[in-house]
Amino acid sequence: MDMQTKTQQRLNALLQWFYARRCLASPTAPKDRRALQRRVRSGSVVMPYKGHYIGAEEWNKLSYAERIIWSLRSVCRRYQGIVLCGPSAAAVHGFTTSLKTQRYVHIAVSKRSQAGRHGFIFAHYYKDPPPTCEIDGMLVTDAMQTMMDCGRTLDFVNAFEICSMGLRKCGFANKALQGFVGRKRRLWGIIRARFVAECADPLCENGGEAVAVAAIIELGYKQPQTQVTFTSPLDGREIRGDFCWERDDGSLVVGELDGRRKYTDPAMTDGAEISEVIMREKDRESELNMLQIPVVRFQMEHVRKREPLRQRLEASRIPHDSNVWRSPFAGFRCVAY
What we know:
This protein is of the alpha+beta class and about 325 residues long. It has three domains: about 5-60, no CATH class; about 65-210, no CATH class; about 225-320, no CATH class. Helices cover about 45% and strands about 20% of the residues. The protein contains 15 helices and twelve strands. The strands form four sheets. It has a four-stranded mixed sheet with strand order 3-4-6-5. It has a four-stranded mixed sheet with strand order 9-10-11-12, sandwiched between helices. A two-stranded antiparallel sheet has the order 1-2. Helix 6 (about 145-155) crosses helix 9 (about 190-200), helix 7 (about 155-170) packs across helix 9 and helix 7 (about 155-170) packs across helix 10. The longest helix has 17 residues, at about 5-20. It is globular. It starts with a helix and ends in a 22-residue tail after the last helix.
């Protein structure tokens, strides 16, 4: 057996040992790190964080949520006793699956001298130890603390998504978050956290809907009501719209967010075929039109680019928010990712 084959077998055994523990490999032997670095350059191994490795094939099999959790678990395993906070804690709680916010691993520290960026570690100083809980072997700030910290440190869209999904997952109304944040004083970014707590909507069914609502608010339009129910004029059953606005003249407009998950995710389709889901959508839209309620449809691509979304909202005569100037996020630059 040649040296190259022996090295590959050793690396395979190393990777498999870590895979069994659902985390990335963090070898201590210099020869293993060098061998894995060569494979990173060739593309057969991925390095999400410096010194943490996983085979490219295995990485591609993982969902976004699993990629984040495996990465964070490996860091917690390597640095015993750390407390995850901010967007890292939000991912462990299941409030977000956005890879964009996971560029750094955010941890809580009790000494001001330890705060700051240290490679891929972003340490945040807490004068008083934050409330924590253990999830899947990882120590994280508790749900309310995590949502407040994300509201203080992230941009509005990501903070709104995390807080909306956090409230939904925990079964809280946004008044609970408002009360928690309202009791905090003299914290950097607390005004932004209060604004997010005021806007957060636990009725958003998924992160995509939350991101869309946040984009609508940032564009200066009134925040829509979510998951509003209507009575079908055909058979009296309940039908729902993703978003709903009341125009200045009292008429209603329903907004529908179209995305692939809506038609392919079994959790959202009840196991139906794509064609059946599309037909149900068309029937529901027809019933809303029978109620004299127009429907404006948009996609996540429109939400991300903003201008196509703005054009659709403007053409549908969606009312503007006269209090848009109140947002404390104007001019804010997020450095958390």
